[in-house]
C-alpha cells in the first residue's frame, strides 16, 4: 500500500498491480496495515482524523475523529481491531475499538521516541507514563485492555522502552544525559540495571537479538556494549575506531567506475539509454587492504544531539550478525559476527548511509545511501544493484518483504520493488 | 776505596803488560776518574796505559810496592814480601793476591751489574708507576666531572618529575572540580526541568479539561458496521476473574520462559560437567603413575596415592547426576589439584630439559630418563595387549577343552539333527508333491479320456453329418446337373474327413516334438501348466538321479495323454 497526497493506493506485492484505490479527506501522513492484513489505517494528523479501509469490502469505511484533541500518532493494536491514537501534546492515548465502538483512555503518556510497545506475540502492551515528574510503566493485557502492572522506573527521563522478543523482559533506557539501562521482568520486577559510565552522553540506540539472548546498547562514545540475558552483565564492548588494523576484517569499499563510452557509437541526437548511462556512474565493491582508515567526521562540539556515537543497530534474523553504524563515520556499516564477538566486515560507501535492514529470513543486509543504488551484503559477498530507470532515484529508505524475496525501495516521491531471485539448488 | 777501584781496573785488564810499569801517580786518581770508571765498559787501552804509567814509574817502585803491600795487608791479604821485612817480593803471594783481587773484581762487577739492573728495573717501574698514576689521576678527574654532570642531570630530572607530579595533581584537582561543577549543574538542570515540567503538566491538565469539556460532538467514530474480532470470539467483560486470569497467564508466560532457560542451563551444566570429567581423566592419564618413577620425590608419591584413592572414589559415583554444592566443589577441587600436579610435572620436565642442555652428564641422565619413560609406556601398552590376548586365548582354550568332552559331540549332534530334520522336511514335501502329482495325473487322465470320448462322439457326429450332407448333396445333384462346385464341395468334405483320420499321428508327433523341444514354456492347454510347474519344482530339488527321471516322466505321460486325446 502506498499513499499519494490524499489517495491510498493498494497494490499486489508480487505484481504491483493496482488492486484498490481509496480517497481520504485530506493529505495522509501515516499509513499502517493491521496485523491480519485486512485493514489499513490512514492517519491525517492535520485534521485529527483516522480513516480505516477494509481490503475485503471496499465499501466499508470507518472514520475516527479526535476533534480538538488533535492527533500526533496512531497505530494498530496487535489483534488488528483496536487503534491507539496519541493526541496532541501527548495529553492522552485513546483506544478505539472497531468491534465494539468503545473508547478507552490512557492518561499521562510519555512524550518520548518509543512510548508504546507491544510484545512480539501481541499479548501485552507496555506504555511509558510520566506523572509528577516521575516515570512509570503500565503493562496492559491486549485482549481486554486490563491494567496488569503499574510500576515506577528509576530513570530520570525515560527515553524509550522495548520488549525482548520472548516477551518476558522489558528494556527501559534513560535520556542521553544519563547512561542507564533498566531491565524489568514482565511482572514489573527490576531484574537488573546497567550503567557503563556516568557523565558523558549515554545511550543512543538499543536492539534486542532475535533469540532474546543479547541486548546491544549503542552509545555516544562510539561503542556498543552487549549484555547477556543470564546475568545482565556486559559481555563485550565493540569499538568503532576510525582505523581498522585487524587482518581478519574484510573491508569492502565502494569504488566508482565510470563506464567506458564507445565514441564511435555515439549517435546524434543521443538515445535516451545512452544519455542516462553517460551520466550515471557505475560503482562496484573493492576489497581494501588492511589497515584502512575510514572517513571520520568530527562532530560540532556545541550543538545538541551531536552526530557522534552508534546510531543504528540491527541484529540479523538468525542471530549471527550485528550491523551497526557509527555516526562519526557516516559512510561505513560495521558488521560484527556475534558468535565470535569480532568485527567481520566493514562496508565503506561513497555517501552517507541512510538506512539498512536485515532480510527477515537469511543473513542478508540491504543498505541504501541516498543514491540510486542498493547495496546487498551476505556472508558470501556483497553486490551493488543499480536501480534501472531514467533520472535519479534517490533511495532514502528500504523495507524487506516478510518472506525475504523482495524489498521496497523508497525515494522521496517514488518507490520501487526489488525482487530477489532464489538460488536454484 | 774509590781510588783503589780506579786504579785496579786498568791494572787487572792488561795484567801481563803493566806489571813492570808502575807509576807513582797515585794522585792521578781524581774524582773525575770515578765517573769514568763507573761506566760498565772497560776503558780503552790508551787510558789504561796512562793509568799504569801514572801510578808507578821507575822512580817510585819501592814506594808503590810498599804502598800496595800496605793496602793488601789492610785488606786482609797476605803480604807480598817474602818475609816480614825484606825487599824481596813473594811472587806466589803476589799472584795469589792478584787472583784474589781478580776474583774480587769479578764479584764486584757482578754485584755492580746486578745493582745496575735493579736500578734500571726500579727506574722503569717507577716510570711505569708514574704513568699509571698520571692516567689514574686523569681518570679520576674525568669520573669526577661525570659524576658532577650526572648529579646535575639527576637534579634536573627530579625537579621535572616534581613538576609533572604537581601538574598531574593540578589536573586531577581540576577534573574533580569540573566533575563537581557538572554534577551541581546537572542537579540544577534537573531541578529546573522538574519545575518546567510541572508547569507543563499544569498546562496539559488545563488543556485536557478544556478538551474534555468541549463536548464530544466533534470526537466521534463513524463506522459503517462493527467488525468482528480477529479471533472470532466475543469481547469479554472486565471482571476480577479476568484480572486474575490475566495475572495467571502472565505468570505462566514468565514461568515457561524461566523453565526453558533453566533447561538450557541444565543442559549446559551437564555438558560442562562431562567435559570436566573427561579433562580430569585425561589429566590423570597424562600424569605418570607412581610405580614407574622411583626417582620422583616422596611427597609427590604420597600425594599421588591419596589422589588416586580419591579419584577412584569419585569416579565410582556418577558425579554428573548429582548437582549439589559439595559435589560440585569436590569436582572442581579435584580438577584443580590434578591440574596443579600436571603443572608441577611439566615444570619438572622443563627443568630437567634445561639442566640437560647445560650439563653433559645430566644430559645422559635426562635422556635416559625420558627414554626410560617412553619405553616403560610402550612396554606397558604391550603388556596390556598381551594380557588381553592371553585372556581371549584362554577363553577360547577353555571353550575348546570343555567342548572336547561332551559339548562338542552334542554340538555336532545338534548340527546333524538339524540337517536330518531339514532333510525329513524336504522328503515330506516331496512326498506330498508326489501325491499331488498322482492325483492330478489321475484327474487329467480321466479328463482326457472323457475328452477323447467326447471328441470321438463329436467326430462321429461330424462324420455322420457330413455324410448326410454329401448324400443330400448328391441327391440334389442328381436332381440338378453335376457341377464342379458341388463336386468341389464334396471333394472338400472328403478331404476333410481324410485329413481328420490321417493327420492324427502327424499332429501327435508335432505336438510331442514341440513339447520335447521346450518342455516348460508350451502353454497350449491348461493341462500343460501343471507339468511345467512340477518339472520346474523337481528340477529345483536337485537330486541328480531324479532329474532325468522327472524329465522323462512328463514327456511319455504327455505323449500318452496325446494319444488318449486324439483317439
From TrEMBL, chain A:
InterPro entries: Centrosome-WD_assoc, WD40/YVTN_repeat-like_dom_sf, WD40_repeat_dom_sf, WD40_rpt. GO terms for cellular component: microtubule organizing center; MWP complex. Pfam families: WD40. This is WRP73 protein.
From TrEMBL, chain B:
GO terms for cellular component: adherens junction; centriolar satellite; ciliary basal body. InterPro entries: Adhesion_Centrosome_assoc, Afadin/alpha-actinin-bd. GO terms for biological process: cell adhesion; intraciliary transport involved in cilium assembly. Keywords: Cell adhesion, Cell junction, Coiled coil, Cytoplasm, Cytoskeleton. It comes from the Eukaryota. It holds the Pfam family ADIP. It is found in: Cell junction, Adherens junction; Cytoplasm, Cytoskeleton, Microtubule organizing center, Centrosome, Centriolar satellite. Residues 126-213, 255-282, 369-396 form a coiled coil. Residues 541-567 are annotated as: Disordered. Belongs to the ADIP family. This is ADIP protein. The gene is Ssx2ip.
